[in-house]
Specification:
23 strands, 256 residues, rod-shaped, 6-stranded mixed sheet
Length: 256
């Protein structure tokens, strides 16, 4: 028979290949083995055999993972704060409904841009120089960016431009006049945008607040072109006339 002891305390008997539940404290420990064999009713014990084992602390994974982010966001998530005895290997995994979506290796993991909205699992597994492992996991909520449509009404030179939005409730519509860097909020663009006749490029975004996680998500810019019509120029030549005679004139602005 075999008797195994850990730091002098018997922890197992028989032919075993592992001693579970004993390596709960770091440091040096002694594992002993005594064999005994029955010879015709006489039990003969062996001399005790002993080995010293070093029990290492587990690494302590740390990170700066977000709890929520917007679709298309690509933040870098770092494991640099992990408590370790030396160098380490960091393995990352993103799951959706328990199904792996993306994996990565390295101190820094960049959240992938191509994931749709939903609640994902993010895990970090740390393996240190001694081969010891530990992990950390959390849920990350990916929030949808708002989507909608925008329609620009044709405008005359120098007149405000009306804008028609369809957007989710609570979304804030923001416009940017790419020609001069003007920005604003609302359904009417100021006359400055249409001060010059011709095509004008206007960018539109929608921003939606998510009060729960406390973040706002903004849609990609939608650039549309509005044609600003030049004002016609009135001009004519008038002939002198006699009483009771019709006035005759000639248009000189190209109008028929």
């Amino acid at each position: 028979d075999a008797v195994w002891d850990f730091n002098g305390t018997t922890v197992a008997t028989g032919q075993v290949t592992a001693l579970p539940g004993v390596s709960i404290n770091p440091g040096n420990a002694t594992v002993g083995l005594t064999l005994s064999q029955d010879f015709g009713g006489v039990t003969c014990p062996s001399a005790p055999a002993a080995e010293t084992v070093e029990i290492y602390n587990l690494p302590l994974p740390q990170w700066d993972a977000p709890t929520a982010l917007c679709v298309g966001s690509t933040p870098d998530i770092s494991s640099a704060g992990s408590s370790l005895p030396g160098t380490y290997t960091a393995d990352w995994e993103v799951t959706l409904g328990g199904v792996p979506q993306v994996t990565g290796v390295g101190e820094v993991f960049t959240w992938p841009a191509g994931l749709a909205d939903g609640t994902y699992g993010l895990s970090l597994n740390i393996t240190d120089d001694n081969g010891c492992q530990d992990d950390i996991a959390a849920a990350v909520e990916v929030l949808a960016t708002p989507s909608g449509t925008v329609t620009l009404s044709p405008a005359c030179e120098g007149a405000p431009i009306d804008v028609a939005f369809t957007a989710p409730p609570g979304a804030v519509e923001t416009w940017t006049w790419n020609g001069a860097g003007l920005t604003g909020v609302g359904a009417t663009l100021p006359a400055a945008v249409s001060a010059t006749a011709g095509p004008q490029d206007i960018g539109f975004t929608l921003t939606l607040d998510y009060p729960g996680p406390g973040i706002s998500c903004t849609s990609p810019e939608d650039v549309q072109t509005v044609e600003v019509a030049a004002l016609p120029e009135a001009g004519f030549a008038l002939d002198d006339a006699c009483v009771d005679a019709p006035l005759t004139f000639t248009l000189d602005n190209g109008m028929d």
